[in-house]
């Protein structure tokens, strides 16, 4: 029934008419979000007969075995059975000691489960998921922060590299030579903080190549990237969603936007690329999980470093992005 209601919603929304005039950022975001939700409901309803799986939880407060639903229950659902502390602090899951797993991705078989958090003795895996999520969310901020008179087209973001000093998103803007002032960067930072304070659950979903093309039909960069991504992922495209914002990423990402604490958009730098059309700008930022406290001086040093140009992958024509986007289905082995 839920699926049918979403179908009616989409049929009653004349997106083709909207596209003939200049579609607003909000309208496009709503269209993409509705398509994501529709497909998520369809996939859930297609599960059929519910099978039970055993999930052997390893970690505090006590090791235990949970009986969960195959292809429905997620690590987040497991955490809810284990206690509020784990619900609030868990950032990403580890399945069978080797595969990183998004907290809201359904478990596909019986397994051993660990819940990773920011204050672990070795938090590198969590930090990478956090950094990837920050890039993803920075794209949402870029889309939402400009008036409709400015054309904003998200291109991509490189694989997370915490050592680079900043997370980034590369965005095409109809601004020929924009050099943001301090107050403009401050405004972007405030918008970022406000978005995260809305406590958006970060959802994940794999869709077919054709469905991904439908979702991103108004973004020529994503449309061009999708075939290569699908070709390297058994015809599927991994998507993530926070609020109305939908984007492509290999994942995993963290559980919720409320995990972010201090956030600063540190710079926006015009890049030299061979991408046709308007200039590509590199949005850069730095952030800390809310559970990590740092004094003002130390955080200031991190901000200063993050203002320098991040030299991660620069967008180019015919670029293979499958390494960055990849898949959350293929095991991401921990070494």
TrEMBL record:
InterPro entries, per database record: Beta-grasp_dom_sf, Pro-tRNA_synthetase, TGS, Thr/Ala-tRNA-synth_IIc_edit
Domain TGS: 73-116
GO cellular component, one term: ribosome
One GO MF term attached to the UniProt entry: RNA binding
Pfam families tied to this protein: TGS (PF02824)
Keyword Methyltransferase: no
Keywords: Ribonucleoprotein, Ribosomal protein
Name of the featured protein: 39S ribosomal protein L39, mitochondrial
Organism: Agrilus planipennis (Emerald ash borer)
Classification lineage: Eukaryota, Metazoa, Ecdysozoa, Arthropoda, Hexapoda
Gene name linked to the record: LOC108742396
